[in-house]
Amino acid sequence: MRNLRKLEQSPNLTDMFDNPLKIGLDEDLIKKAYATNKNYLHWDDLKFRTDNDDSRKKLWILMKLLRKNNLRTIKIGNYEMKYTSTSNFEKSLHEIDKETASTLELQLPSVKDMKKYVVNSLMEEAIAFSQLEGAVVTRTDAKNVKIWK
């Protein structure tokens, strides 16, 4: 079994700087934050993409602010979930949607098949119930009875 490394906990934004707007943002940092957020990297992965700890913290603050700006909320029952979707994610989702639409359409049963399925299910239930009540008949013989046809 592979030995997985433990992820480093991301810093709390309020603990890092009193005011995130005073961190000294420059245009290159903003471009890097947009580019890095396309892959939705974790704090731990920024180690390998920044020069030092201070620049990593600044980049993280900016990335989190950009993510919060794109935050979406969905409510299912009593649960409220928040997520941020990236352009790469939406592109992939669109491709999945396009490719599976025709496949799913082909797999839907026809009305004729549905009726056949319902009749067969009812017939199987009736045969099983009859056998439980003591009828001595095979499924094949029971299905050949004229009332089913």
General description of the model:
The chain has 149 residues and is mostly helical. The chain is built from 6 helices and 2 strands. The chain has helices at residues 13-16, 27-37, 53-69, 87-107, 111-132, 139-143, and strands spanning 71-76, 79-84. The chain has a two-stranded antiparallel ribbon with strand order 1-2. α2 crosses α3 (53-69). It is elongated, with a radius of gyration of 30 Å. It starts with 12 loop residues before the first helix and ends in a 6-residue tail after the last helix. The mean pLDDT is 77.
Spatial order of the strands in the main sheet?
A: 1-2
Uncertain runs: none
- Give Rg in angstroms: 30 Å
Strand content: 5-15%
Based on DSSP secondary structure assignment, what is the total number of beta strands? 2
Q: Work out the count of structural domains.
A: 2
Largest sheet: 2 strands, antiparallel
- The coarse silhouette is elongated
Helix content: 40-55%
Q: SSE order in H/E notation?
A: HHHEEHHH
Distance between the termini: 59 Å
Helical region count?
6
Alpha-beta classification: mainly alpha
Question: Average pLDDT value?
Answer: 77
Note the main attributes of this structure.
single chain; 149 residues; mainly alpha; two-stranded antiparallel ribbon; 6 helices; 2 strands; elongated
Secondary-structure topology with pairs:
Layout: H1 13-16, H2 27-37, H3 53-69, E1 71-76, E2 79-84, H4 87-107, H5 111-132, H6 139-143
Antiparallel strand pairs: 1-2
What is shown here, in short?
The protein is mainly alpha-helical and 149 residues long. Helices cover 54% and strands 8% of the residues. Helix 2 (27-37) crosses helix 3 (53-69).
